[in-house]
Amino acid sequence: MSTLTEVVPAPADAAGTRVVEHVVEVDAPVERVWRLIADATEWPLFFPPSVHVERSLLERSAGGVETERLAIWATANGEVKHWTSRRRLDPAARAITFRQERSVAPVASMGGEWTFEELPGGRTRVLLQHDFRAVDDDPEGLAWIERAVDTNSTAELAGLARLAVRAGSDELRLDFEDAVQVTGSAQDVYDFLDAARLWPQRLGHVAAVELIETVPGQQVLRMDTRAVDGSVHTTESVRICTPVERIVYKQTKVPALMTAHTGRWAVITDGDVVRASSQHTVLLNPDAVTAVLGPDATIDTAREFVHRALSTNSMLTLTHAKRFAEQRATAGPLDQP
To answer: What pTM was computed for the model?
Structure first.
């Protein structure tokens, strides 16, 4: 079993920097655990706070050491935050150091290190250390950061421990895409996908929507979706919107059959034709398969069920976005997004 330890705080130094450590022992070999942390673009699948990560390689040395920049969107104490970090990955030392290049208040600075220790029996000890300061060394800001670091680190290490045990089992992962060709404006397609608050009036399978967008381009979407059998399911997502190109999202409240669900709406113009697509990545929850689908259900049954349900809803949305854009192109605006 994996054992998550309590946070171990170090006293603040004279300059106001706080240092905290979180540790987990994982029932998986060190190479596998290392890979899960090294590929930050996969974090939204097993780190509950992570919403979206974009990576750019800055430097690679002959010894395999890499320096990279990460653009990260994540939740912290119920808020969506966005920052950029620089990481240095040293596989020989089994260490990954990181430092935020652009922090967001109340954080003035933050950095830290991942270290990985091989244990007997094919197990791994993972140590995650953070050091941070609050803007103007404000005590309330420091308390907010400590709470966020503790909550997120605990969730991240627990997610890492769970996934590391199952990593390599491709049957639990589902990746697929649906797409339509649109003879219309990419802006109109994007506007339809962006304006989710209007989906209950535009999409028959959407029963209700609550959309919160306090920061432009960062949306929290709560949606009631009506299934084919008439049942209604509630999901919650964080969406990161980049006009007029894409909307990436992560469901923060998923159905029982899933442990994670991320996706991307993409709008690509090629000459006079617009390609609109919906991409999904899902991690299935094997413990819920028989409870949800019946005693004879298997992982393959769950894969087919989830694929069909998500693809059906995606194609309904894409088809309506196509019709919306093409009618606007031929007849002018039908309604405002």
So the answer is: 0.87
